[in-house]
Amino acid sequence: MSEFFKSSIGRKVAMALSAFFLMFFLIIHLAVNITSLFSADVFNQLSHFMGTNPLVQFALQPVLIFGVVFHFVMGFVLELKNKKAVGVKYAKNDGGANSTWMSRNMIYSGLAILAFIVLHFIDFWFPELNTKYVLGDMSGMHDGEFRYFHELVEKFHNPIRVGAYVLAFVFLALHLLHGFTSAFQSMGITAGRKKFLKNFGVAYSILIPLGFVIIALFHHFNH
Ligand code: HEM
Fold first, then answer.
1. Which end of the chain is more exposed for a tag (fewer CB within 10 A), N or C?
2. Nearest to 23 by CA among 161, 177, 170
3. Best substitution site from 63, 114, 124 to test ligand 1's pocket, by max atoms within 8 Å of Cβ?
4. CATH no. for residue 179?
5. How many of the other CB atoms lie within 10 Å of CB of 55?
6. Which domain range does residue 171 map to?
7. CA-to-CA separations, 49 to 105, 128, 134, in angstroms, rounded
């Protein structure tokens, strides 16, 4: 088994599995956050449940963080291996003709998302961990009401942060536009469904980041 994951195809499969997991997480994350557009109450309730449920906190969240780190580390490993392989020159290596801009620049769109994740953790996740596990305040309350919606709105006051987030979501779309179909190809499950997967991939890659863009802009302009 470990030999399989050391092989080139094994690494691609591992990369694809972590990508599927992260793409599923993005749907859940968007579904929770999008409620903030319609109801502060629903958003508060969902955030409190996700932030205090032991199964989510101590089983799903560690798996998620492992998935994020694994995907980035494996992405760098694949990039380095590919660079080495390119050293062995082909008779004709005209990247522009044989592949898309997105596929040749996965490492750069990935790095932009990594930079976003660092900023995003500083904005939301680390303060959450601090409140709950360092200060020991699991109530989710501030001044007699749930604090989650208020904290979210607060973050999107700053136009520079909103701009950085929106730019990151554009990179996320570019990353997904290649990554979605590539993950299915690595798993060898495209046969007979190529067209459907391509269209579905394009819809997913645009709609999910667009949902996040709408959330950031909505709170910036409405509060
Ligand atoms: C407008 C867009 C977004 C908003 C408002 C938002 C909001 C949040 C909040 C409030 C948390 C803290 C959750 C908690 O621990 O209680 C969080 C965590 C997190 N976010 Fe986001 N997020 C956005 C976009 C994204 C995107 C695009 C990604 C991935 C590319 C992402 C990845 C994560 C991860 C990995 C965590 C830490 C794990 C977790 O607590 O679920 N977020 N986000």
1. N
2. 177
3. 124
4. 1.20.1300
5. 8
6. 2-221
7. 38, 13, 19
Domain count, the chain: 1
Nearest CA to ligand 1 atom 24: 212
- Helix (H/G/I), strand (E/B), else coil: 146: strand
Local confidence pLDDT in tens for the 223 residues of the chain: 577 777 888 999 999 999 999 999 999 999 999 999 999 999 999 999 999 999 999 999 999 999 999 999 999 999 998 888 766 555 555 556 668 899 999 999 999 999 999 999 999 999 999 999 999 999 999 999 999 999 999 999 999 999 999 999 999 999 999 999 999 999 988 778 889 999 999 999 999 999 999 999 999 999 8
Determine the residue of 29, 36, 113 to mutate for testing ligand 1's pocket, defined as the one with the most ligand atoms within 8 A of the Cβ atom: 29
Residue type present at position 178: H
